Amino acid sequence: MKNNIIWQPQPKQAIFQSRKEYEVLYGGAAGGGKSDALITEALRQVHRPNYRALILRKTVPQLREIIDRSQQIYGPAFPKAVYKSVEHVWIFESGAKIYFGSMNHISDRFKYQGSRFEYIAFDELTHFTAEEYFYMFSRNRPGDKDMQIYIRASANPGGIGHSWVKARFIDPAPPLSPIISNVDVMHEGKVQTLQRSRVFVPSTVFDNEALMKNAPMYVASLAMLPEAEKQALLYGDWNSFQGQVFKEFRDNKAGYSNGINSHVIDEISFPANLPVYRGFDFGYTRPYAVGWFIVDENGTIYMANELYGGDGGKNIGNKNSPVEIAAQIREIEKSSPILKNRQIIGVADPSIFDESRGESIARMMEYSPNFIYFTKGDNTRLAGKMQVHNRLKFNKEGRAGLYFFKNCKNMIRTLPNLVYSNSRVEDVDTEGEDHLYDVLRYVLMQKPLANFIKTRDTKPLLPLELM
Ligand SMILES: Nc1ncnc2c1ncn2[C@@H]1O[C@H](COP(=O)(O)OP(=O)(O)O)[C@@H](O)[C@H]1O
Ligand SMILES: [Mg+2]
Q1: Which of 74, 176, 242, 416 could form a disulfide with 229, with the two C-beta atoms 3.0–4.6 Å apart?
Q2: Whole-angstrom distance, CA of residue 242 vs CA of residue 232
Q3: Does residue 104 surpass a pLDDT of 90?
Q4: What is the CA radius of gyration of the chain?
Q5: What is the 3-state secondary structure (H, E, C) of 256-273?
């Protein structure tokens, strides 16, 4: 009998395939049998004529790999099924279809507009943006009323989606513990609260006996990777990944009270004569971000407060107008004990001064009753990035040149999650949640702060060494 078995789940894959949550993320390390688990899970409802499944990879070449694997499994298991290579679809005897698709660009999602799928799987979810992932939820509808609908995904740490995937599946609960979120829906004047559940099922190469047996050297290859990548891909450590830009960032509770070896600290107070630098990055469909900074007598910079206009984790803005944002800034500056009655110097994304399409965003924020003023920030990207690196560096005593009060939650969450761009390899990938990072750059590139650095260090800061 055993010879008739084409594929059977290994123990971790069996756990993944038996979860009842609406969304399940599987893996978190290389070689754990993630793609196999997603491909075989797609078969669950293929006896139903109306069943439609979709398995996504970010790019077409990556898709090739899983299509090849589907041929090894679906072919012998369903001899009457045919694969149509032009449309990338398997058609089963019942009429059920399993599609393979890519989503290289955000506009690719419109390929799926008007389609519905009972099963949607994202292979390597950290290659996708949150927008792409959540858009596909709208395509997850049943063709017949008793069909199961659900979303499955696999992922490794790292990549453009690292931050939101970690925030959605890894941070809220330990592995295998369901995370429940409520969604309020208005219907006929009444609010109905619906529940959605999700869970993370971890696996590493050590859970993949087939691979350990057939390719024992694969483990050795993972062990030989640079440390950060090895921790991520071999052991599934989500705090360490290849491509992370600010690896030196530390959020260390033991240092909250004295700032030793931690960039995150408890709030402290400052003399009343010190001004505040207010940095601003405008966003509408993406979050907007404001950060307030104070430079102490020694030239150390402290981020005291933040305003983040969007859905943290999803990178979706809350579409406030410039006037609404200005009103919120004014309110915070009037009421925050640490900010009120100080001189405030505004510095912003230079693009908000653009008047080519009518009144500029900067102008709209200046009007009564808000009176929020900015000067143009220096948007020289690599120099700004080096300023951040230089500031984050700890000296021999474990003191840094830049600290964040622990209430600056979005800055603390997003700064360590930024990754390098694939196209401009020295720079931060702007597809990520980089809004508070941009704020930080504009503020650090301000002349007064640069002057402070010069008086503090005997060596001039330039030329910058690239890391
Ligand atoms: N249940 C299984 N039975 C046999 N081989 C498996 C099984 N699961 C995974 N494999 C094999 O292990 C290797 C790695 O699995 P894969 O799913 O590609 O891992 P990942 O996507 O996590 O990197 C592949 O060659 C795959 O075919
Ligand atoms: Mg894979």
Answers
A1: 242
A2: 8
A3: no
A4: 25
A5: CCCCCCCCEECCCCCCCC
Q: Which of 335, 400, 403, 344 is nearest to 372 (CA)?
A: 344
Ligand 1 site, CB within 6 A:
7, 9-10, 13, 27, 30-36, 208, 210-211
- For residue 427, report the distance from its CA to the centre of ligand 1, in Å: 34
Q: How far is CA 379 from CA 312, 343, 360, 449, in A?
A: 24, 24, 18, 15
Q: Which residue, judged by its Cα, is nearest atom 16 of ligand 1?
A: 33
Residue 76: other Cβ atoms inside 10 A:
11
Which structural domains are found in the chain, ordered by start? 2-235 (3.40.50.300), 253-456 (3.30.420.280)
Atom of ligand 1 nearest to the CA of 39: 17
On the question of pLDDT at 130 being above 50, the answer is yes
Q: State how far the alpha carbon of 419 is from the alpha carbons of 69, 155, 423, in Å.
A: 30, 16, 12
Residue with tokens 């990549």: 159
The dihedral built from the CA positions of residue 328, 334, 338 and 344, taken in this order, carries a sign that is positive
Which atom of ligand 1 is nearest the CA belonging to 7?
3
Centre of ligand 1 to C-alpha 34, Å, is 7
Q: How many angstroms is it from 172 CA to the middle of ligand 1?
A: 28
Q: Residue 33 C-alpha to ligand 2 middle, in angstroms?
A: 7
* CA-wise closest residue to 281 among 293, 290, 273: 290
CA distances from 414 to 181, 244, 265, 288, 306 (A): 22, 11, 16, 13, 13
Q: Whose C-alpha lies nearest to ligand 1, atom 1? A: 9
pLDDT-wise least confident of 106-110, 182-186, 204-208, 455-459: 455-459
Of the candidates 222, 302, 241, the one whose C-alpha atom is nearest the C-alpha of residue 269 is: 302
Question: Are residues 420 and 389 in contact, defined by beta-carbon separation less than 8 angstroms?
Answer: no
Q: How many residues does the chain have?
A: 467
Q: Does the structure show a pLDDT above 50 at 316?
A: yes
pTM over 0.70: yes
Q: How many A from CA of 32 to the centre of ligand 1?
A: 7
As a whole number of angstroms, the distance between CA 327 and CA 331 comes to 6
| Ligand 1 atom with least separation from CA of 203 | 22
Of 42, 52, 48, nearest to 153 by C-alpha is 42
